[in-house]
Amino acid sequence: MMRITENMVHFGENPEDPGRIIAPGDRGDEIGVAETELASMQTQLNQLLHQRKRLAELGLAVSKINHDLRNMLASAQLISDRLGELPDPSVQRFAPKLIASLDRAINFCNDTLRFGRAEEATPRRELFALAPLINDIADGLGLPSDEIDWRTVVSPTVQVDADRDHLYRVLNNLARNAAQAIESQRAALTKQHGQPPPRSQITISARREGLCTIIELSDDGPGVPAKAREHLFQAFKGGARKGGSGLGLAISAELIRAHGGTITLLDSDAGATFRIDIPDRQAFATGS
């Protein structure tokens, strides 16, 4: 007991030092169990502190670039406003989408610091048709493309009670991840076989079930590795592709939870399928 007590005091002086975590002995009695459980708790605390330190460093870096980035986006917004005045039909078609994308980027910059302080903006919910939002996401990602087909199975009558910008961020994140995974897989297969494989596909569908909107986004890419599944929606742990930080999925999960909803990775024979359940405000308030 003296050894355990001394270790607790020693660890408490600097819990970020992994060398201070107690090394359990071979005892099988209550003291041995206490040592094992203490080591487990100290390890979890040590990892949590390291993760929070990295998030704090990320928040500091973001705060430094936030001001300049907003200025650059504001300049681009002024230019896009002028483009919208040109009579060219192609410009008239794409300028509103460009302006909307810049508006989202500026709003995202304004919200970034709040996320760094773990205060994601409260959803500004409204009831709106889902199909136009999905079309905007496809246009923004340049889908369909020569390599990837984009299939939408969403009736024009399907509506969702959500924050439009938040849901855009979530679905855009999932679709971009799917496209990047597919592109990496296709590049590897092309290199291996000397010719590109058949076109890949991303499918997004939505339906209403009672007071809830259910959205599913699936692809026929390489799927999510087993290692990534263990911490899929945790920042810096759940990156599904090499070099990924996992922040995108962590942010998406937080935004959906703020709506009282859930986001899950479904079991599938090939590729990956994410399901999002968003209850209406009425259902969320009553807990049904």
Structure summarized in a few sentences:
This protein has 288 residues and is of the alpha+beta class. The protein is built from eight helices and seven strands, in the order αααβαββαββααββα. The strands form two sheets. Strands 2-4-5-7-6 form a five-stranded mixed beta sheet. A two-stranded antiparallel sheet has the order 1-3.
Question: Care to describe what's here?
Answer:
The chain has 288 residues and is an alpha+beta fold. Helices cover 55% and strands 16% of the residues. It has 8 helices and 7 strands. It has helices at residues 2-13, 30-83, 89-116, 130-141, 164-193, 226-229, 247-258, 281-286; strands at 125-129, 148-153, 159-163, 200-209, 212-219, 262-266, 272-279. The strands form 2 sheets. Strands 2-4-5-7-6 form a 5-stranded mixed sheet. A two-stranded antiparallel sheet has the order 1-3. A hairpin with a 2-residue loop joins strand 4 and strand 5 (212-219). Helix 2 (30-83) packs antiparallel against helix 3.
